[in-house]
Amino acid sequence: MNERQLEYFRRKLLAWKAELLSDSRDTIEGMKDATRNIPDIADRASEETDRALELRTRDRQRKLVSKIDSALRRIEEGEYGYCEITGEPISLRRLDARPIATMSLEAQERHERRERVHRDD
Description:
Residues 78-113 form the Zinc finger DksA/TraR C4-type domain. It comes from Limimaricola hongkongensis DSM 17492. It is a single chain. By secondary structure, this protein is an all-alpha fold. It is 74% helix and 0% strand. The chain has two domains: 1-80, Four Helix Bundle (Hemerythrin (Met), subunit A); 83-121, no CATH class. The chain has four helices and no strands. It is elongated.
């Protein structure tokens, strides 16, 4: 992968991270503003369910930010774009679709097949 391509992915990852962090700040502000005493038990339960879903979504995004940071670190260390299992280059199309990918498509498919087999046990 050449320097121009690495810079493209670095910028893509940084923009994605900034968007996630912005969404997270908005959620925190929204949750602070939405804190209120709801007398109807059904409405309160609905609000709590919505809040739990939002928090679960934010937790997933927090984990995604960690993966983005890891990808950015791999770019800096010259390891970005190579499969951690086979050492082979990951296709640019795969990286464009999933810039945090750490495995080639073939390695990922093998990994998922093994997971499914072991999960059924």
